[in-house]
Design brief:
The protein has 7 helices and 2 strands. By secondary structure, the protein is mostly helical.
Amino acid sequence: MPRRRGATRYAILGMLNESPMSGYDVKKRIETDLGHFWRESYGKIYPELRKLVLDGLATVRTQDQEGRPSRKVYTITVNGMVDLRKWASQAPPDLLDTGELLLKIYHGHLVSSANTASLLRKALQRAREELQEIRQHYEDEEEASSGADAGRQHRIVTLRYRLRYYECLCLWAEESLEKLEGGSSRHL
């Protein structure tokens, strides 16, 4: 699951936007809500929570628990919400970084529907460009293929994976746009 390091901060801020949480709660919520496309370790969550507090994007308070050690509960600040919305409204540096793209779409309710649709259209266009390039490379390899060149056959198999991956990414983006916009997006 590729992603930029800085996006960890926004995965956490997004969880804190839903409700105040401890680091343990953040980890569990990421596993439950984002686990199908995003992972975070405690080793990244706790240092990032400390940075969020230092940067004024979250606050922390100690909560006593009967019969258990006290826990730190983090809450997003107004500045944290502004920062999260700003991040969610911008296209990721790599539109084909599906982890960050999906994280932004997951938090798309924080920005306008038009903004999220625009992000999806940009990702779709980039995926179509990549698909066209891979398709040409795949066809060139297939055409040059000879039964005796086992290395070429293995390259073709891996190219087929990339071809199918981008076909699926395009289909998903088209279906998602259709769902978000309530109409057909196949002719964008």
